Amino acid sequence: MSERSELRSELRSELGVRAAELDASDELAKLRAQFVLDDVVYLDGNSLGALPASVPGRVDDVVRRQWGEMRIRSWEESGWWTAPERIGDRIAPLVGAAPGQIVVGDSTSVNVFKALVGAVRLAALTSDGRDEIIVDATTFPTDGYIAASAARLTGCELRPLDPAEVPSALGPRTAAVLLNHVDYRTGRLHDLPALTSAIHDAGALAVWDLCHSAGALPVDLDAHGVDLAVGCTYKYLNGGPGSPAYLYVRADLQPRFDSPLPGWNSHADPFGMSPAYEPAPGALRGRVGTPDILSMLALEAALEVWEGVSIDSVRTKSLALTDFFLECVEAYVPRGRVVSLTPSHHAERGSQVALRCADAGEVMKRLIERGVVGDFRHPDVLRFGFTPLYVGFGDAERAARVLGETVT
Amino acid sequence: MSERSELRSELRSELGVRAAELDASDELAKLRAQFVLDDVVYLDGNSLGALPASVPGRVDDVVRRQWGEMRIRSWEESGWWTAPERIGDRIAPLVGAAPGQIVVGDSTSVNVFKALVGAVRLAALTSDGRDEIIVDATTFPTDGYIAASAARLTGCELRPLDPAEVPSALGPRTAAVLLNHVDYRTGRLHDLPALTSAIHDAGALAVWDLCHSAGALPVDLDAHGVDLAVGCTYKYLNGGPGSPAYLYVRADLQPRFDSPLPGWNSHADPFGMSPAYEPAPGALRGRVGTPDILSMLALEAALEVWEGVSIDSVRTKSLALTDFFLECVEAYVPRGRVVSLTPSHHAERGSQVALRCADAGEVMKRLIERGVVGDFRHPDVLRFGFTPLYVGFGDAERAARVLGETVT
């Protein structure tokens, strides 16, 4: 055995032992049993969360009994009608929101539209001449596309900026700022408290997209006075493919929240069938049309996993996992072969690691063939999401080891 | 036995025999076996269609295998990504549309918004000064609320009118007209070909809401040159509670269709993740965000029922059913106790019967207790929907008979 391969073998054994120790002392490790997982290392929960074991039975009951047997009665008797606000309240503690401020329904894109147009209208109520929407230029593209549409329809100008430039760009023309809490590509966590505070100091409204943070780290919407927020539920919340997104409108803003999509579900008396629109009080004002019950109730079952789980402990494990993964990558992958795009400072890191790699597309294919599932983001990024509820330290070590073998 | 009750008994026996004969010669009767139904007479399929027997197994497979085992791979390998347009093409023949013009996704309300804003923008491309949206004043309220929002955001004026007044109200200011094909309350079928033609003669665009017609009668969108249309899938298409709605944009309008909700799913290259928006060609341009896969694939399974079923035969049975029900109501219900709001002319009738009844709320409760499920619409309407795929003539006779016993 050459000195090099001997060293590597020692390292491997050492990191393997460390992983086992970390897993043994992980208080969240037991949650893995609540998910349907096989031998694959699943690091794509930041794209589609794994299936919680409670979901199939629940969905089957919704289909066969609630729909098949009770039919129309289920809108009332099975709680279908109130699901959007009930499930919103289940998400609320995960993002630091008191009850009554979140409704579930529609896609993230549709909720970004409601939130941004709503924010511009709220801004117009308090001061004139606010005709500018600032959007995170590095954002997940849909936010930028929808922000452009919201700007066009409200007569605003859209300014795409790097989040770091936002504080100095804010001014008397700024109506609203749409930011991603965690960058979908690099995994960078933005400073929500400081940015929200700067936005408020300029008299504008802060709209946060929580797709890549909710369920992975504390958000504390209420504590930081966030105005409006949206997020999807199929990533760290494990709601299933295309499960409905949610909208948060801070309680004190709700009476003035003026939705651009005032569907009948947001009416104060939806079954009054009045031709005159009168918005419901509270979070319900963010509803639009008939909610997609199958997807919504699958999400409700998925959220049961969170019973008794603190988001702080999830955050602690998430950082330990990404730290350990980065350490293993450094040990196993030849220097320079990949470059981490993910900030090393904890305060700037979400729950994913993004590695730049020239042949990332090809490398990810080979990783998947070998049972390590992350994803590829054009043109050269390997993305590995760490869902603390079901990913362990052994998974992190194995993923890095297979990556090292794949790129060597 | 009094003469009166003897007469009633004879009548009952005669109508019962007629019902049995009609059921025996009904070529669609065999389809009932493809639905999960019990002894209840279910006349609320115009609110929530019954469960097709193929759905529970399919949904279970989507949840356990496609999500649970294949996870992220299913977006490609299980055809999740292309579901909105694939299922749109499955709905297309039911509404007389060639393939490539319908996408499934979002709620009806959201699709009304896309269609109306899109229509106003299309109108502006061909002539100036079109700043008026006409909407069916008797419409299902959400269409009116959303139309008001579309008008406000596009700088248009909204004119709610009775559909009969529309032709004379059309003018050089009319940009778009939103009409319901069948009135949700009375069951009145509006003259789609004539109204569309009048709207076109005025240089405006016709947007039709097919919620209460698709799956119950021929719509022939292409043949009549309809510009845009929307519809839900949980009524006569039996897609399940809150199953996604659809948007039709006529093929020749697609290159100029300019959606107010340009989410990343409508991008020409969605995974290119470009900050610049470039709309996809064709019907895909009507997509927005990530589609709700569970609800969407339940709908796909539900649509299999239509294999080999012609919408003309469905219409023939629908009219025969509502005729027979009205005949039975006349025979069984004391004169004047209920008044039909549903047009007697076939050309003006959808697939439901609406009866005005002073104590409709109370009467419907008692009907439901006795196994006849229709619904109540404020303030005084009993609504009975006839889904030809699973409602028979015996059901119609029984429903009228129980109604007669209930109100006497």
TrEMBL record, chains A, B:
It catalyses: 3-hydroxy-L-kynurenine + H2O = 3-hydroxyanthranilate + L-alanine + H(+); L-kynurenine + H2O = anthranilate + L-alanine + H(+). Gene3D superfamilies: Aspartate Aminotransferase, domain 1, Type I PLP-dependent aspartate aminotransferase-like (Major domain). GO terms for molecular function: kynureninase activity. It holds the Pfam family KYNU_C. Pathway: Amino-acid degradation; L-kynurenine degradation; L-alanine and anthranilate from L-kynurenine: step 1/1; Cofactor biosynthesis; NAD(+) biosynthesis; quinolinate from L-kynurenine: step 2/3. The modification N6-(pyridoxal phosphate)lysine is found at residue 235. Its cofactor is pyridoxal 5'-phosphate. Keywords: Hydrolase, Pyridine nucleotide biosynthesis, Pyridoxal phosphate. Transmembrane segments: none annotated. Its EC number is 3.7.1.3. Pyridoxal 5'-phosphate binds at residues 108-109, 140-143, 209, 212, 234, 264, 290. Catalyzes the cleavage of L-kynurenine (L-Kyn) and L-3-hydroxykynurenine (L-3OHKyn) into anthranilic acid (AA) and 3-hydroxyanthranilic acid (3-OHAA), respectively. NCBIfam families: kynureninase. PANTHER family: KYNURENINASE. HAMAP family: Kynureninase. Belongs to the kynureninase family. Homodimer. This is Kynureninase. It comes from Streptomyces mirabilis. The gene is kynU.
